[in-house]
Write a structure and sequence with these properties.
By secondary structure, this protein is α+β, with helices and mostly antiparallel strands. It has helices at 18-27, 76-94, 162-166, 172-190, 193-206, and strands spanning 9-15, 35-41, 60-66, 99-101, 105-107, 113-121, 134-140, 213-217, 222-230, 236-239, 244-247, 254-257. It has 5 helices and 12 strands. The chain has a 7-stranded mixed β-sheet with strand order 1-2-3-7-6-5-4, with helices on both faces. A 5-stranded antiparallel β-sheet has the order 11-10-9-8-12. The longest helix has 19 residues, at 76-94. The chain binds biotinyl-5-AMP.
């Protein structure tokens, strides 16, 4: 594999959360490119206090520390870079590229959730939220669930894995190497306007949400409409019938199929 900025890979048998670990490392001054990967997380995090589940030794649980130079409004593109790289890596290892459900999921061919991305930044790091460290974690369901019956009731019918979706038993180390190789040039792209335009256009092309009728749930309101576009900052544009609204990833509780 050609060399990337991701040379410092820290491996854990068990940890609470790889995102939590790298946020602490970032606060202590760790440089861009540190990677944390765990066989098991005891407190794997989803968005908004939700949990990420994975039995020990089955799936890829990894976080990367980035220090991207990009405007605060475009911070979501750091998650996008990881989602695109993960989709490429799954395609390379298993022969089928997962689609991206805005803002942060990868979906299998049957439309079930195959992976989730969580970007976290410490708001105290920079006054306007730009240029500070951001930790982007991804959980990719590789070998679990192996069969539908593996899923707990709360994930039944909604989650899948590379194995269940494609029938291919992918090696987690190979998948991680593919992800980091595909991510490295995209992190470069975050730093320039042209690179960010290219990332947002890749997202638009692979985003299964664009073209769908959706219900957007925000903390204080929800509304429905047709998702028509992704902006160059990575925001979702929704045509409500009475006008267009641009939805910021960090504000979203859920985006669900509507009607
Ligand atoms: C996410 O949150 O999808 C982000 C998940 C990020 C996990 C990675 S693992 C490495 C790194 N370290 C961490 O601590 N976290 C990151 P969200 O969109 O909020 O989705 C969470 C919801 O997905 C849960 O409430 C469940 O309904 C569902 N879920 C939990 N585990 C799942 C799994 N393995 N597969 C599919 N869905 C799952």
């Amino acid at each position: 594999m050609r060399s990337t900025r991701f040379t410092d890979i820290r491996r854990f048998d068990t940890i609470d959360s790889t995102n939590r670990y790298l946020l602490d490392e970032a606060r202590a001054g760790a440089p861009e490119g540190v990677v944390a990967v765990a066989d098991h997380q005891e407190a794997g995090r989803g968005r908004l206090g939700r949990r990420w589940e994975a039995p020990p030794g089955t799936n890829l649980l990894v976080s990367v520390l980035l220090r991207p130079r990009l405007p605060a409004a475009s911070r979501h593109l750091a998650s996008t870079a990881v989602a695109l790289a993960a989709s490429d890596a799954v395609a390379r290892c298993a022969g089928s590229a997962p689609g991206i459900k805005w803002p942060n999921d990868l979906l299998g061919r049957d439309g079930r959730k195959l992976a989730g991305v969580l970007a976290e930044a410490d708001p105290g790091d920079t006054p306007d939220g730009s240029d500070g460290p951001v930790v982007v974690g991804i959980g990719i369901n590789v070998g679990w669930p192996a069969v539908e019956a593996d899923l707990p009731p709360e994930l039944a019918g909604t989650a899948t894995s590379v194995l269940l979706d494609t029938g291919v038993a992918v090696d987690r180390q190979e998948l991680l190497a593919g992800l980091l190789a595909a991510l490295d040039p995209r992190v470069d792209a975050l730093a320039t306007p042209g690179g960010r335009t290219a990332l947002s256009s890749e997202l638009r092309d692979r985003c299964v949400t664009v073209g769908a009728r959706v219900r957007v749930v925000l903390p204080a309101e929800s509304f429905e409409g047709i998702a028509t576009d992704v902006t160059t900052e990575g925001h979702l544009v929704v045509d409500t019938g009475r006008g267009r609204r641009s939805v910021v990833a960090g504000d979203v509780v859920h985006v669900r199929p509507a009607g």
